[in-house]
User: What shape does this take?
Amino acid sequence: MSGDLGAEVVVRAARAALEKHPDLRLVLVGDAEELAGHITRIVGEEKRLTIRQATEVVGMSESPANALRKKKDSSMRVAINMVKEGSAQACVSAGNTGALMVTAKYVLKMLPGIDRPAIIAELPSIGGTVHMLDLGANTVGSPEQLFQFAVMGSIITGDIRGLDRPRVALLNIGVEDSKGHDTVRDAAALLTESGLNYVGFIEGNEIFSGKADVVVSDGFTGNVAIKTMEGTAGLSVYYLRRAFSRNLFSKIQAVLAGPVLRSLAVEMDSRNYNGASLVGLNGIVIKSHGSADSYAFQHAIDTGLVEVQNQVPLQIGNLLQQEAA
Assistant: This one.
């Protein structure tokens, strides 16, 4: 019921996801009357799509603490409760990120051996994609927590991209062993001694280089990095449009370059990477971008489905036990 574009986006995404996955069943949580109206108009009769009533909505700018304490019948809380009860295997939400994180942690609890949850997302890179975490769940992290992020990132990346041993790197201000603060150097020591495919430090300008499949950082650094990436992408689009509209000759060039630009737009479309996982929880919760359209939200549903099929929380718990042994 939250998100910037409202419930209609979710209903359209649900229809597309059900058409794509014949064995999928979806429950839309929120105002039953409003949802039923959208379903009748957009989907029609579909037994695999049902509604669960919730009387409250968490606002996009609402305090996470307030949402947890006072809105126990919000669509967000009810959806997460369903995962806890086992009546759903994953929750996908475009709502308030802080409220989603706090509520999910409170209701589902953490996996044994995990101190804090992390936000992981898939991003485009040379030759494929790269998964990066943490993107804002924790402003700071200990060496042990960065190691836990690496374990979780390795499993998520392996499942989604079909890799046996994803290459894991630590984001740092240099690639030399002496660079960075004590936390990142101590985390590197833990990863070097682990069974993960640790490839060393990576700098910010190499995140998209294809040198690593998983990039690990604390949430403060990761969030600043990804917001900088988003801003740089927007700046690039601005300069391209300005260059191609400068005069008649540049406009003709724009027409000639049209097929290449359209192909590039498809390949770089951020909607194909929507759906960040809140990993470390004893359950599967996917965070869609608040401004996601139906195409982007469907991708978030697909991400949740992959994690359900691969039993990601169980995999994380098993790998942590192996590392501790």
The chain is about 50% helix and 15% strand.
